[in-house]
Amino acid sequence: MCGIVGYIGKKQAAPLLKEGLKKLEYRGYDSAGIAVLGDRGLAVEKRAGRVDALSANVYGNCGIGHTRWATHGAPTAENAHPHVCGAIALVHNGIVENAHELRRECMERGEKFFSETDSEVIAHLIARAYRGDLLAAVKEGCARLVGSYALAVLAKDRREIVCARMKSPLIVGRGEDGCYAASDLAALPACSAACVLSDGDFALLNGENFTVFDAGLQPKEGEKVVFSAKEEDGALGGYRHYMRKEMAEIPLALENSCLEIGNIGDFSGFYEVLCHAEYIQIVACGTAYHAALCFEYAAEKLCRIPVEVTTAGEYRYRDPIVPKNTLCLAVSQSGETADTLAAALCAREKGAKVAAVVNVAHSSLARMADFVLPTRAGAERAVAATKSFHAQLAALYSVLRALAAARGTAAPYFSLAKEAEEALALSEKVQGWAARFAAARSVYFIGRGADYCAALEGSLKLKEISYLPSEGYAAGELKHGTLALVDGRTPVVAIVTSEALAEKTMNAVSEVRARGAGVYLITTLASLSGREGIADAVLLPPCEELYSPALTAIPLQMLAYYTALACGNDPDKPRNLAKSVTVE
Ligand code: M6R
Asked: Residues 388-419: pLDDT tens digits?
């Protein structure tokens, strides 16, 4: 993971680097650092903790910066980037898989290391190769690396920045006052020209322009990025946290992410493949994986097509069988999740057509896929996914409706923006539950069918930001072992939206109540509200059962949010995590 930035131009680099890094903190916030080249040579500032901890009192108009999510070595100032070796300073995002053997080689040559990171070894390799031509030295150093990297490199005696990319995103751009490099478009100011580097590319930035080179150092036309005039400003808009603000944006995300998929229009190529699909495989991680499970449940039930959802990190290692006419949906908010990218590539190599359900238009996943089904949630900054889950559901339910149409089945109409608005207001009551949850030993979320998918997501959200042990369970499965863990200090959240399955889930509710658990109900069924023995309930507006996770997820997200606050945690930046998981 990690975010990297670079600037060379007419302005002071340090404030621009700090500003860019703050926009990349979603990629990690364990430590931060900058290196700036000025009249007095190279100045480096590194700190443990967030970007705000940097004073940025270093002067010069050429520099690089880094915000870290620790992989090799603790989140200390020593392990923070930039790493310096001889004339070279560099920042790195990615993982050097052969770092151990390269480090041993360097140490045998008598070279000293000052950090435990895999990245420092790259500075050693480039410093060894550097004889006044930085671009050539970076190429030579990179040739020794196995793994992934996005690099921005400075040499003390040259006013230029060299960048390199292999399996970690990197964009370079030219603005009014100079040239920029960043892990993500969000960290670049408006640029008159910008390019996404491809794997194996290098780039050379000077104060006036940038040049992209291929793996053989031949100049090439880079892949252009178009700046959207409507880039969001990132303001909190009166909310205390991005997570809560992004929840308020759920109705819009639902509305904007419904896609018109048919034999005319933008998605006609995808529709053609969908019509011939005999098998659907979905790869995704975390919340996106749960959105995929919601689709699996609905598509199998309604369209009678086999759908197989696999956590992306497992997919390629089980040597999956990809039958003829398989459609692979790769679902990801960021489009940079390393496991999801690798799984999608694996599915394509085995003959599947890949459609990326993705929120970031220029992301690696969008660029590798045969088709792109955009989710239009807007930028999501809180680490906990909220509105992007809903946007993924809206896009996937659009696929469901197109699939049903292609198979001659009627799918219920999907549009829950108004109901989601109501659900947001109704869900505020869970603030009153938070103190009891914060004091709990562990929490269970139970449901059946689509409600089980929502239960998994509710549990992930709670553990991610409140740090409470929690599990999502199929309601019928508890009694096969896990019920032994339930006692008076174990709140249980039951999600019930299916008339047909309601009493079955309520049996599980009785079983946990009999063991002393306080039961909190989230339901769309008015018949269940006021049911005896329930600690409290959120009664949501009625909703088509297949689509119910789009509503039930709202009080679950709200519960996680308020419990995190009751625990004294920052819900936007939970410990140990990052928004974009670009390492395997
Ligand atoms: O960017 P992606 O959708 O590929 O990210 C996948 C997961 O890392 C992500 O959903 C994660 O589980 C969330 N932080 C959960 O809230």
From this structure: 999 999 999 999 999 999 999 989 888 899 99
Q: Position of tokens 């990025």?
A: 225
Site residues for ligand 1, CB cut-off 6 Å: 285-288, 332-334, 337, 340, 383-385, 460, 464, 580-581
Residue closest by Cα to atom 4 of ligand 1: 332
567 catalytic? Reply is no
Helix (H) and strand (E) counts in the chain:
17, 25
Q: Which fold has domain 3-224?
A: Glutamine Phosphoribosylpyrophosphate, subunit 1, domain 1 (3.60.20)
**Residue 183 and residue 28: Cα distance in Å, rounded?**
12
User: Given 46, 167, 353, 579, which residue is catalytic?
Assistant: 579
Q: 330-367: per-residue pLDDT in tens?
A: 999 999 999 999 999 999 999 999 999 999 988 899 99
Q: pLDDT of 218-246, one tens digit each?
A: 999 988 887 664 455 567 888 999 999 99
| C-alpha of residue 168 to centroid of ligand 1, in Å | 17
Domain 416-569 is found in CATH 3.30.930.10: no
Asked whether the domain spanning 239-410 has the same topology as the one spanning 3-224, the reply is no
Fold for domain 239-410? Rossmann fold (3.40.50)
Residue 23 annotated as catalytic: no
**pTM recorded for the entire structure:** 0.86
